[in-house]
Amino acid sequence: MTAEPFLWWRDGVIYQIYPRSFASSSGSGVGDLQGIRGKLPYLQDLGVDAIWLSPIYPSPNVDFGYDVSNYVDIHPDFGTLADFDALVADAHARGIRIVLDLVLNHTSDQHPWFQQARQGRDNPYRDYYLWRDPRPGGGPPNNWQAVFGGSAWEWDEASGQYYYHMFYKQQPDVNWRNPAVRQAMLDVFRFWLERGVDGFRLDVFNLYFKHADLPDNPPKLGLRGYDRQEHIYDNNQPEMMDLLAEIRALLDQYPERYMVGETFDSSAEMAAQYCAPGRLHAAFNFKMLTQGWRPGGYLRAIQEWEHVLAPESWPNYVLNNHDVRRSASRFGRGENDERLKVAAAMLLSLRGTPFLYYGEEIGMRDISLRRSEILDPIGKRYWPFHKGRDGCRAPMQWDASENAGFGAGKPWLPPHPDYPFRNAAAQAEDPDSLLNFYKRLLALRREHAALRQGLFQPLSYEPRAVLGYLRQTQTETLLVALNFRRWPARLVLGGRMANRRWRLLLSNKRSEAPVPQDGVIALAGEEALILKMV
Ligand code: NOJ
Fold it and tell me: Whose CA is nearest to atom 8 of ligand 1?
């Protein structure tokens, strides 16, 4: 295949920022837009092409920004619209695109629409949400469960009806079947597009529509109420496809805009349908967030994704986000980062857009909190079985100064105690650090079209030790060999490959290209190796 010109969202790397935790300019203990702006040189030096900001809109913060009370303004904790415009301008000047997180499945209960809607059955905004009478004999209209716990129906004493919420009761789901809602939401896209935003991450978009008749979901085995039913009527309804086409048509009126959807609780096949031509540019596939540290599981996830996607669709890969334990805590060993280098080399050499999560590039680990320190309501509710998501949202570890250099003022969550030695400043100085390894990978990806667009061809592999694959364009063949184990392993190159010569592009374990012996490349323990065929 011949390489195409660089397209930011396909060829580039997208870096997720959790704004509360990235950098604070104000000393309030909460990160802000000016803080992010001040770190653009760092991001440019790292080599990312875009930043995705978790929600920055006004919000009472029951779900830390995923409960929006105004879609077209900035949370005062984060700054103002003027700060936002300045961030966009500075980011663009550095070649960094801005992706906003749009949370359009539900609003905050403090949103003026809901405030109006709960005034009574006749209020013009009532139908912006899903209100229903109790079922005959009393009780919620159907058996639907909220993923954050309990019935998804909340009783409103004043009007004698229930309203529906998939997440917290302070996050009522909107009624996307109401044309006024649809129009208002499209206007939200337009507002930010006009402000120069380059793309959107759509929070749980596949929940927008629920079955119009609200039938009970069929039961299945599971632990919690939510897990004890098949979610066939409260998500993935066919109406979503037309809506995506409509939003896509809107985005396509602007050059090089992008949207990636968070496909909530769904299969790779379903995600693939949502990013078929004319719909989303990309849909997340979260398979890699739950893989154990074995090459076989990753290879399966990659092959499944490659298999289900339409030929015109584009994959993406992610090892971390603001909802899961950090990869460094899932499979890092103590403070050792070698496995994380192997994981980084995989993520950044696959055929698909890599998403990084702030701090991943320095191997930040989750923080541990005492029960009394937990802020995430699901952590409060399910402690000690699920301690919530605060662990992966700790302040970015910039340097060894107070508060990890996050800013003056007590940070909203404590920094990880390893910050005096694990921080961006220290790693910038150390040529063997994880940070410098990420930088080299990002630079390699930019340099070699084969890493961005080349065909992905797995090599024969040892399912418990080595993952090996080729990335190929018409003019270039690169080989990626990843040893997941601590002890040496072999990658066998069969057929015509056996006698080829290779140039070293990157390794965390050697400085000269290996010379295959009888078609076998000997890998050091936990080695990540990228070679170019000469
Ligand atoms: C998915 C988001 O990633 C998560 O953080 C949030 O709690 C829910 N959607 C609700 O918006």
Answer: 66
